[in-house]
Amino acid sequence: MAKPAQILTIHVSMNDVAPSLWRRIRVDADITLRNLHHIL
Predict the structure, then answer these.
(1) So what's the pLDDT on residue 2?
(2) Which residues are CB-neighbours of 27 under 8 A, at least 6 positions away?
(3) Using a CB cutoff of 8 Å and minimum separation of 24, what contacts does 13-18 make?
(4) 7, 28 contact by CB (below 8 A)
(5) What is the pLDDT of residue 32?
(6) Percentages helix, strand, coil for the chain, rounded to the nearest 5?
(7) Model pTM?
(8) Domain residue spans of the chain
(9) In whole angstroms, what is the distance from residue 22 CA to residue 3 CA?
(10) Is it true that the peptide bond before 4 is cis, omega within 30 degrees of 0?
């Protein structure tokens, strides 16, 4: 039986921007830094 994928929720915000800008992004727990960079 396959293990269920683990999902992480990342809160991303930008500094020095008015009004404030932020997003919640859900990604697989095994995402590489390179792929996360492309998403952001």
Answers:
(1) 73
(2) 7, 8, 10, 36, 39
(3) none
(4) yes
(5) 96
(6) 20, 40, 40
(7) 0.66
(8) 7-39
(9) 31
(10) no
